[in-house]
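Issue: copy button drops trailing tokens. Both records pasted manually instead:
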Amino acid sequence: MKQVITITIAALLLAACGGPKERAAKKSAQLEADSMLAAYHYSDSIYAVCGRIDTAAFGEFITRAVAFAEAHPQDTLAPDMLYRAGIGSMILAKSAHNTVSRAENSKQALAIFNQFQEQFPDHPQARLCYWQRAIVYDDILGDWRSAESEYRDFINRYPNDSLTPVFQQYLTLLGKSESELEQMLDARR
């Protein structure tokens, strides 16, 4: 009887730890995630410190992060990688020097944030995808109607969220010119 219990415990431990192939796959995924994080931090630090965009580095990170999230959806880093890929696409769109690149990168950012919500609907950052899409529409594309739709979707879906009052305020500012915004500020003083 003792032998049966020992064998059962050993089998359970081996199953829990996974075999050599599973451990190698986990290690490979972890190395890939670490490499992607380093690539993201490199790209983002150049942007934050120098104000310069390394479009090739951001582009490579985005491609790898999307592929990683699709290949390893159960990995705890997959949502973070995908979300950062969306942010990277926004940065590329915002800094684009022509309308074609701006539109392509904006479309990619919107698609990534949609994918995030589909793939990780219960993740805390899923709710922020509405906000990121609204920023793309408003600040990058100048499409205030679509931005308004994103803010309203957030407000309707998360009426008690701490961001809801902020987004309600944003709705009053959408599409206003600088002079209209100045008049609104003067009226409040």
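Record 2 (pasted manually too):
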Amino acid sequence: MAKEKNGYLSARESRRISKENRRIMGEYEKKRKRKNVDENEYLTTMHDKNNAVEFDNLHSYFFTDAGTVKSVDGVSFNVPIGKTVGIVGESGCGKSVTSLSLMQLLQRPQGQIVDGEIRLNRGEKAYNIAETPQEIMQDLRGNAISMIFQEPMTSLNPVFRIGDQVDEVIELHEGKGKTKEEIRKQTIEALELVGIANATGVAEMFPHELSGGMRQRVMIAMALACHPRVIIADEPTTALDVTIQAQILDLLRELKDKINASIMLITHDLGVIAEMADYVVVMYAGRIVEKGTAEEIFYHPAHPYTLGLMASKPVVGKEVDELYSIPGKVPNPVNMPDYCYFKDRCEMCLECCKGEYPGEIHLSDTHVVSCYRYYEEHKEEAAQKVNKELMAIASMAAKNDKEVAEDVK
């Protein structure tokens, strides 16, 4: 752990950390760049053949001069075949890093998968992405897994025409033995698949000639051009207006059913998750605090953080002076506390929350939460605290009603 003085590292300590990190990163880079690797080193077995992807105790870290940032710290969840899994949480909670780990697109050499497995189902073979060398990943990206990146305005190259950029994807992954005319035909088909009417004309345009919604459709076309089994949609509707958002979500839903793909949907928008997702994963500070079916998370949220997210979203027809905001701030990612990461912001914490990070509690076969309030030995204390809070709220409401009545008189 980095030694700090008045919130700053000394030059000597920073040099020590930098030297140690270079050594660690060098070891991981050698592993990633190795060639002629026996396939037994990276092939694995799916725990459930019905899953497209299985994240198992994934740890993805960034080695910085200020210390090691544990962006993803022990994440485990599954993406079933033909289903949509929504990943929600505040900015910086590890959602995008989890998806970039699956694609092996972490910013190297600083960003590395240091532990755990990511099992990718590709029919007869299953790959452990954490151990798969770089040259094999080139084949998996685009063909087996593909990503719709977060910002369509900057993800397209401004100096190349749309058709050339989609052509490049197809040529790289499926171009063997195909002529340029055949590749362009496949490009036009991909653009038409995402609802672009004048696909031939759009293929000749530059990105700046298209609207935000059209650019987002092009990004989706590039991601789906080679018919991947797993689609990662990282904030696919963030920069779009509401009507275009609805069109893009409908498009994703249709395409998922058409090619029987699985979707990892990363977003801050709980409304999008409620509409699209079959399963929901709630992340906080690099860990999963709750996961379950969409119905369980939205109708029976269990973790205080999930409850806070639910309370912070606007509700149609409900007037409020201001939206709820979860108090406090996320802990320092370099020096994380040795207790529940949400404790210092939690309005429901118990005396036992001072202990080590809580383990997973199964509320049902599919609903899992990491919170001391659901431990058998602490349920009574949690119930008493909730009742006390409810009584305080009721008392405050009664007081307000009395004041209103007096004002009326």
